[in-house]
Write a structure and sequence with these properties.
By secondary structure, the chain is mainly alpha-helical. It has 8 helices and 2 strands. The protein has a two-stranded antiparallel sheet with strand order 1-2. α1 packs parallel to α4 and α3 packs across α4.
Length: 165
Amino acid sequence: MGYQKNNLFFFKNKEDLVTASLEGLLNEFREDINGIVNSNGKDPILCVILIYRRGFEYLKYFKPSFLFELEKYYPKASQLFDGFIEDLSNKTVFELLTRAKAESNIKADVNIELVVKIYFFRVDNLLFKSTNLFELYTEEDLFKHLVIYNLKGIISSNYTNQYME
């Protein structure tokens, strides 16, 4: 992608620069996710909550136009972002919620795959669809409504953590 000369990085074109910048940001978030899971792994529901709380901190700095421009002008960067979101929701969150269900902390009749597709896949599209919801609502209100309240609907009556009280 880029090459180094005299301790400076050069890129062939703007798309490579945008892709490398986005890759750095996504790698930082990936490290945050791994740290969250490693620190809170005994409670997979809490892991999902903390992952999305951290994700909201990242997303609030994005503009809807940024994601649109990625898709339109920077296909490599867009593909990188889409792959990251796919892995986050369909692997990480799916596995955590599946584990929570196996531990009887999610109701037995809940379809985890469907929950992930409805509530946790492409949250960015929901936040930025026609307007930037971060401009209309507080980060805390958005987080509660998109993450906490949805999880409350699927957890079993014997599960609790500080976010569910």
